[in-house]
Amino acid sequence: MKLTMIGHESWSLQAGDSHVLIDPVLGSGFGSDADRQFAIVPARDVDLQRMPAVDGIVLTTEHLQHFHPASLRRLSSDYGHLLKRKVVYVPELFPGAAEAIVRACGYEVRRVDTQAEFVIGSLSLRFYMPCTEVLFWDSRVASLHVEHQGREAVFIQSDTRIADAYFADVNSGAVAWPQVMVMTNNFQCSGTQGPIGLDNLLPVPDQRYTRLSGLRLLDEIVHKPMRRLNQVPTLLLAGNGYRDPFGKMHHPWSNLELAQICSELSLLRAVYSLTPGESFDVAPARPGEPVDWICASDEQVGPCPPKGRRHTISLDTQRIKAHLDEMARTWLITRYGQVLMAQSNYLGRPVGPCRAVLQLTRDDGVGQQWLLDVSRVEFVEVPDECERAIKRYPYGIRVDHGDFCKLVLGELQIWELLNLSASQWYVCDRYDSPLAFWLEYYNEQVDYGRALRSYELSLVTPS
Amino acid sequence: MRAIFIGHQTWLVEHGSTRVLIDPLLCEDFGLVDEHRIEIYPPRTVDAAALSDIDLIFLSHEHSDHFDIQSLNLLPRSARFVVGATIVEPVKQCIRDLGFTLTQVNDTEPMRVGDLSLRFYPADPKTAFWESRVTQVHIEEDELRSNGIFIAVDALVSEVYKADIVEGRLVPPKLVIVSNNSRVSPPGAFQSLENWGKNASDSNRKVGPLGIGVLSAVLTSYMDDFPVQPENIALCGGGFIKRLGGFAAFPFSDQPTLSRLANQLSLDTNIVGLLPGEAFTLDTDPGPQAVIDWVQVDKVQHNLLIGELDQFIDARKTVKVVASVRPDVQDAQAYEELLRRAQAELQRLAKSLMLFITGRKVLAMSHYKGSKLGPKRIIFSFVSHALGRQDSYALNLISGQFEAEAHNQLESLVALYPFGVCLPLVDFIGMVEGDLQVWDIVGVSVQSWFENSIFDGLIPFFYSYYGENGSPELLAKIIGRSMRNLTVCP
């Protein structure tokens, strides 16, 4: 079996005559907005004409770093002759809207239950989902176990916790022991340009980045899983294989650096990482020959400065309010709301019923500010307080007005928004924060219509 | 203030002209039994004359890798000698017999020593039983209380200490010194708490990124409930080797390497890993410091030992279990006599064993390796390789007594009984009668197996029952012999 890295967490897996593509993102990047693409790094050219014929495609999740409709459509329409069968295999909770798009791209979709075996060519595959203790937005992600003739096997963690059932199956011999396990490092933090993701505008130390965070990361993704297997596999580190368009995101450790550190801390088992085009031979658990259809690109992508204002549809105030009031109810009945309810003081002063603020900013004008009033379960528009808001309200989201409208209309996904133009402040745990709530509220699986629109749009963006 | 690392867990804390010495091991080896001294790693020489003006000596506990009589003998009797409240009487007497004036600290009130203040804390009671007598120390500058060092030694951090920080009686320390006593044995090697029932050469305790577990155990999980993350954490410990068959230094004991890797993984805390003779200075602008030329690492030997370890691992070598640490018996009569003494000892220890964690664990078991367990669940097996004899005894939970056991091969015993130990008869009797300590034979001539945790088996039982916690009189005997061999220096 030969595992080849295509970019980020996209894989080509070959054994004998069988060839499977896993989470293929085949272009230079991904993203809903053509002007603000997340570029795969290191940049590479994927020469599909020279790619071996494909027996099937597997998707571990509908997240946009793994599921790229444009790549699927390009394969199907321009390189259809390379697809022995146009079949895409997905985990049991793959959203309906994503399935619809995959079919629209010309594929049959087979939905497979967790732990059930499915066969592609001479390969036997299974999805594993942990079902518990997973962050909401990762709760549909599946890990993938692939084996060949009961002898060689590889396990790909993807963006989820490894299921207890997987360790049990390997230790009991229900599935072949994996010589190689691909573990995911998606540790990101804010750089100098301001917070990304769930980071906090308030200058409070975040547990995530303190107390030897890199060591804790390695304990999670390398040490603990290894200790749960009676026989120790060789590990490959993957993830963080893209950059946000403005270079706001910072990766404190590259996979290569982490692999080198782990190898120094390891007995008789090196830890590896691959760049696009590089391969790993599974049975001997060693790097193999790189493939000729993927090679490093001459132009490496650097961050680009934000372009001038693009024309965007702006939603009117009434429509925004209606949308926000719907949100208010869901916010307050979840644990995110409980956190707001419990917050009666801020910076030494009592807060009234307005505890969270949403600031929709405009480069060329005054922003729009909304306050979440917990006693009325609605958002109230008030004059924009700009920088003063962070001192008055314990929770707040600041986001570009146009981007917020795009989010509502399904033209931008929430994960992208968090890493492009949204920021927040909060006085609670990061996973109870306002943007964490938005990650759930705007998640692809929650709103079929919006998700479908988002996928349709991604077909239009250049791949 | 600066902390000078002298090797293993020996530190000299200096501030101005005040000098405080902690757990002094000053020779190239250590050990309370002269015939079985253990080499210090990395190998170094210490010129004890440089310590002739120290103000205070602090001994954290009585284990031989902290309490070395030959080293103490080299120190000025003018220095004040401080121990904690839980130190055992034979050790206190020994210190007095050496000519020191002993101060026993019974509270956490500050003790002024020159320009420093010292406070002594009892270890967290949840510490492994055999380390529970450790006293920890916090040292701070009188003029600048934020310049503080906390030395945790071989125990979990004192709850009283944490409370003092949380409640504002103490300024959180800038440097915490933790001990890395991990013993990761690669395939073919074995360590004191090795589980001989589960040491297949590709097991997850012998192969793979185990160094991450080592670092996590001392830097993250160990410090998780420390109230304020210190700016600096220093690694020490792991500083001795029992050289057997080409295997000496344990992996992941090289503190400078470990600290370099830990620092790469840290966005905040600075991790310190020193070689003997190196120092860490708390002040940012210390000015010129006296060079430490009185500690010299033997670089050649150090590199040789590192190379030896790499070769051992790569070539997949193995270490043989030592036939016996004490001289083996030469005739059947001597063997029978020792066996009778061993049987008597088994009767004596049976009740304690049943109340100890091992006994409680086996009581709670019903099956082992898929079969129903009978009433016999713990094995003691004694061997003499010179005579080719092996005699085994099983503890019967119905009678509360040990009974002769027919099975003799280690493999069959491991297959039938969940807990057991196999060791040379002479070494068992040596430990029982105080001719040597349990530390001298574990990881050398003893093989033990157990289920689940390393704290549940028979080696922890030996540490407790025959160590200073259970049998201070044995320690007294060993100290007595060591003192008789010593020329007491003025």
Question: What class would the helix/strand composition of chain B place it in?
Answer: alpha/beta
Can you summarize the main beta sheet of chain B? 7 strands, mixed
Low-confidence stretches of chain A: none
**What best-fitting shape of chain A do the alpha-carbon axes yield?**
globular
- Overall outline of chain B: globular
The CATH class of the largest domain in chain A is identified as Alpha Beta
Largest sheet of chain A: 8 strands, mixed
| CATH-level-4 superfamily name of the largest domain in chain A | Ribonuclease Z/Hydroxyacylglutathione hydrolase-like
Please tally the β strands of chain A and state the result: 29
Q: At the fourth CATH level, what is the homologous superfamily of the largest domain in chain B?
A: Ribonuclease Z/Hydroxyacylglutathione hydrolase-like
Description:
The complex is a heterodimer of chains A (463) and B (490). By secondary structure, chain A is of the alpha+beta class. Chain A is built from twelve helices and 29 strands. Chain A is 25% helix and 26% strand. In chain A, helix 1 (69-78) crosses helix 12 (448-460) and helix 2 (96-104) packs parallel to helix 12 (448-460). The model of chain A has no long low-confidence stretch (mean pLDDT 93). By secondary structure, chain B is α/β, with parallel strands linked by helices. Chain B folds into two domains: 2-314, Ribonuclease Z/Hydroxyacylglutathione hydrolase-like (Metallo-beta-lactamase, Chain A), CATH 3.60.15.10; 332-435 and 450-484, no CATH class. Helix content of chain B is 26%, strand content 24%. Chain B has helices at 69-72, 89-97, 159-166, 210-220, 255-264, 299-314, 332-355, 357-363, 410-416, 425-432, 438-441, 458-465, 472-484; strands at 2-7, 10-15, 18-22, 29-30, 38-40, 44-46, 56-59, 80-83, 101-104, 111-113, 116-122, 135-141, 148-153, 175-179, 232-236, 240-241, 270-273, 279-281, 295-297, 367-368, 371-372, 376-384, 389-396, 401-405, 419-424, 447-449. In chain B, strands 9-8-7-3-2-1-18 form a seven-stranded mixed β-sheet, with helices on one face. The model of chain B has no long low-confidence stretch (mean pLDDT 93). Chains A and B meet through helix 4 and helix 5 of A and helix 4 and helix 5 of B.
